[in-house]
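All the exercises in this workshop are built on plain-text protein records. A record pairs a protein's sequence with a compact description of its fold. The structure tokens are whole numbers drawn from a learned vocabulary of backbone shapes. Once this layout is familiar, the rest of the handout is easier to follow. An example says more than a description, so a record of this kind follows.
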Amino acid sequence: MSAAGSSLSVFALRLGPGQELLSSLQAFVQEKQLKAPFIITCVGSVTKATLRLANATSDKPNQVIRLQERFEIVSLVGTLNTEAHLHISLADKEGRTVGGHVLGDLEVFTTAEVILGEATDLHFTRQMDSRTGFPELVIEKRLEQT
């Protein structure tokens, strides 16, 4: 297990209709040169999404679903370093939910109100983990302070 404490910076963003959520967040992280960013909370809506479902393993092809209808974002969580690791839950017009690992195509319908945090004393990277077959989070103390 890796664990470390840190001070926190908070950023608030609002994305508008037609913007792609994942790439917009990654652009913000790059612009602000954030080293240990993560999602605190997000509400809003999307008109489409591409998600990887939970059955992926290193030796089994990923099951990907492409959704194209109006959804409310009921949860968005994860880390936003260069190789973002985000999970989302979406509710359809009947209130049914679907969720998974965000691959992209999260096109904002009306709004996406996102609160980002950055652990200002840490640096997030990813390294391949032979136990899981996936690049997993590595948490390091930041050498330089922002």
Remarks:
- The chain has one domain: 8-141.
- The domain at 8-141 is CATH 3.30.1330.80 (60s Ribosomal Protein L30; Chain: A;).
- The two ends are 26 Å apart (CA to CA).
